[in-house]
Amino acid sequence: MFEILSFIFGASIGSFIQVIATRLHVAPIMKSRSKCLSCGEALRIPDLVPVFSYLFLKGKCRYCKSTYGISALVIEIVYGLIFVALYHFILSGQATLFLSFIWLVYYSFLFGTLGIIALYDKAHTYIPISFLFFYGFLTILMLISRYMEDSTWMILLGPVVVALPFLLVWLITRGRGLGFGDVLLFLGVGAFFGVSQGIAVLLISIWLGAIYGIYVKYFGHGKGRSGIAIPFVPFIVIAFILVLFTDIDIFSIASLFA
To answer: Which residue from 213, 207, 235, 209 is spatially nearest to 226, judged by alpha carbons?
Structure first.
């Protein structure tokens, strides 16, 4: 029962972040009803049920029959599964129902913010500053929580250690190799995870980005072209979630190559 509720809640979050990422800096987000971007017709409740509306309408607008694209369905399903994993690995292990609720609220904001940043970067190769600051605020809260349990300097040094490689790349290339937003994202990764898991996020995101870059350059839309801008934030977010739910750290990665 809780798994089903978690999936429905997560899919709803996934649907909502798509609305925000699509409308941000383009149209009002909270002041108007959801509309079809092709015909402008206001969408009604039956058109907005996560996953089921897409399947029932076969991925098309009820009114003008324009297609929404499979990514809308994929994101809703992925977020549904993320929140099922959140229930299994984090919420169900809390001592009280109140703590479970607090962590649910926290991770809802965190996953929502990460999703908006990733989708916006994918579309525009740019990170919206307001959401980047909110992400920083959420990761600082986690840093404070971790420091209250283990008051060592290494906890506080985590953000700097994890972000340092990307900061050096940013300085050496004078911002041409990557954006400063990526550096700030890894500061948050270090604050949230600490050094060992934060570096795991760094490595996994680089590997995923490299694999995707090779695919785009030699097989995808960038075949035969150079200087293609590839959004890196989605790979950071994927690595973030993988490490969170699998508990991978730099030592377990190193053991694979030992």
So the answer is: 213
